[in-house]
Amino acid sequence: MPNYVDEILRRRTFAIISHPDAGKTTLTEKLLLYGGAIHVAGAVKSNKIKKTATSDWMEIEKQRGISVATSVMGFDYVRSDSSKCTPYHINILDTPGHQDFAEDTFRTLTAVDSVIIVIDSAKGVETQTRRLMEVCRMRKTPVMVFMNKMDREGKDPFDLMDEVEQELGIHVTPLSWANGQGIKFDHVTTIDSHEIAEDTRDLIGCYPEFSEEEYLAGDLAPVFFGSAYKTIGVQELLDFFVEHAPSPRPVEAVERKVDPMEEAFTGFCFKIHANMDPNHRSCIAFFKICSGRFERNVYYKHVGKNQQMRFSAPTCFMAQKKETVDEAFAGDIVGLPDTGNFKIGDTLTAGEMLHFKGLPSFSPEMFKYIENADPMKQKQLDKGIHQLMDEGVAQLFVSQLNGRKIIGTVGQLQFEVIQYRLEHEYNAKCRWENMQMYKACWIESDDAEELRTFKMRKAQYMATDKEGRDVFMADSAYILNMAQNDYKHIRFHFTSEF
Ligand code: G4P
Question: Across the chain, which distance is largest between two alpha carbons, in Å?
C-alpha cells in the first residue's frame, strides 16, 4: 500500500457547530489541549466576534487578523487507551459564530467529513443549530452531539435527547451519561456503568445501540454528556470520535464521484481570506484536498482558468501556527497564497477537468445600492467590491436598467463589514442607499423565446450577477407570483447554485 493511503486513513476533518455561547470555543481548546497542540486554555478564545460588537471594529480586525491561524487547527492525537502509536491527524475547521456569517459556516461544512454539534444543556437546540443541521442532513454528514454545561442546572438529559431527535431530525443514542447530584453532575460514566440508577438505565435501554453504519450514513447521532469548561466527558468524546468518525469521504463532482484514495490530486477552494497583511495585499485561498497527495512546486491545473499553476509556499495549519509544507493529503486543508486567481468553488487537479458540486450559495435577504462616496477613488472601489465578492462576503448584482450596483447579504453586519473593509483595505469610501427588494431569482428556461420575452417585458427588474447570469429582482411577493404564473416555462431559483 503506498504511504499516502495510510496518511489519508488517519485523517479526521470536522467542524464544531453550535449556537453562539454554547461552548464551541471552550471545547475546541480542550481538544487542542488533549492533542498537546496548545498548553494553556484561552489561546483560541480571542477568535470570536462578540455578539454585541456590531460596531466594534477592533473586534472584527482582531478576528480577521488571527483567524487565518485558527481557521484550521490541525494536530495529532493518540487515543488515551490505545497501544497503537500511529496518531490520528485531526483537522478542526473553525466556523464563525455570528449568524450574519452563516454563509461562511455553510461553506465550511462542504469541506468537512463529519461534525460535532455542541448544545448548551440549559438552552437546548436553537434555531441556528437547526439550520446548520439541515445542511448536514442534505449532505448526509455524520454527526456526534456533545451536551455541554452539564455542570450547571439544566434540562433533563432525556428531554434534551428528545429535543435533538425532534428538532434536528436525527435518531440519537447516549454513549456517556451525566452522573452526580440531581441534574447537575460532577462526572460522566459509560452507559453500562453500575453507577447509573436502575430506572434511568431502563430508560437508556430504550435507545438503539450504536451502529457505525447508521452513524456514517448520517442517520444516528451518538450523544455525549459533559462540560467543556470543567473538562468532563471531553476525552470520552475525543477517543470515540477518532475511532469512529470517517476518514476523508468521496466527493461529488459534476463529472463523477472522486474517491479520496485516488492517487491523482484534486481539491476545491471553499474559503478566501483577502488582505491578511494590508501592506502586501496578500490573499490566502483555502483548498480542501479531495483526493491523493498535493505537493509543493508541482504544476496543477486551475480548471476554471484552464491554466497550469504551481505553488512554492503552500501552508498547512498546526494548531495556532501556519507553516510551509512540502506535501499534504486528502482530508487536509492547504492555504495557497493568491494574487486574485482564485474564487470560491474553484477546482485544482492533476490535469482532469473536474468541477466539484455542492458549494452552497444563499438567497440574499437584504439588498442595498452601493454608491461611491469619493469620486477620486472609483478604481479602488471597483477593485475592492470585486475582490470582496470573490471572497464570498456578499453577492453583487448589476441592474440592467441603469447599471447601478446592488449588494445582497444575509444580514446587516455584512454591509458594515464591507464598508469598513473597503475603507481600510482599499482606501475607498462607499455609501449605502436603501431599496425596495423582495427576492433575487436566478432564471432559466428551455424555451429561449419565452426567456427573451420575459427579459424584455421585465427589463426594469432585470440584473446580472457576478458571472453574468440573468437575475430577476422582484421587489414584492406579488410581482414574483405574477411572473411565476405568467411564465410557466421559466424556472426561478433562489440561490445561484442550481
Ligand atoms: P462559543 O464559542 O460557542 O460562543 O462559546 P464559548 O466557548 O465562548 O463559551 C461561552 C460561555 O460559556 C463562556 O463563558 C464559557 O466559559 C462558558 N462555558 C463553556 N463551556 C461550559 C461548561 O461546560 N460549563 C459552564 N458552566 N460554562 C461553560 P463566558 O462567561 O462568556 O466567558 P469566560 O468568562 O468564561 O471566558
Answer: 77
List the domain boundaries for the chain: 3-247, 252-349, 363-497
What is the residue type of 422?
L
Digit-coded pLDDT (tens) for 331-342: 999 999 888 788
The finding on whether 148 has its CB within 6 A of some atom of ligand 1 is yes
CATH code for the part of the protein at 363-497:
3.30.70.3280
For residue 425, how many other CB atoms are within 10 A of its CB? 18
Q: Alpha-carbon distance 469 to 463, whole Å?
A: 8
> Hey, CA dihedral for 365, 368, 374, 377, is it positive or negative?
positive
The answer, yes or no, to whether any atom of ligand 1 lies below 6 A from the CB of 97, is yes
Which among 44, 146, 229 is the best mutation to test ligand 1's pocket, defined by most ligand atoms within 8 Å of the CB? 229
Ligand 1, atom 11, lies closest to the CA of 21
Over residues 41-87, the pLDDT tens digits come to 665 555 454 443 333 444 554 455 444 445 788 889 988 776 667 89
Give per-residue pLDDT as tens, 303-326. 989 999 999 999 887 665 678 889
Asked if residue 95 has its Cβ within 6 Å of ligand 1, the reply is no
Fold of the domain spanning 252-349: Rossmann fold (3.40.50)
pTM of the model: 0.82
User: Is 29 near ligand 1, meaning CB less than 6 Å away?
Assistant: no
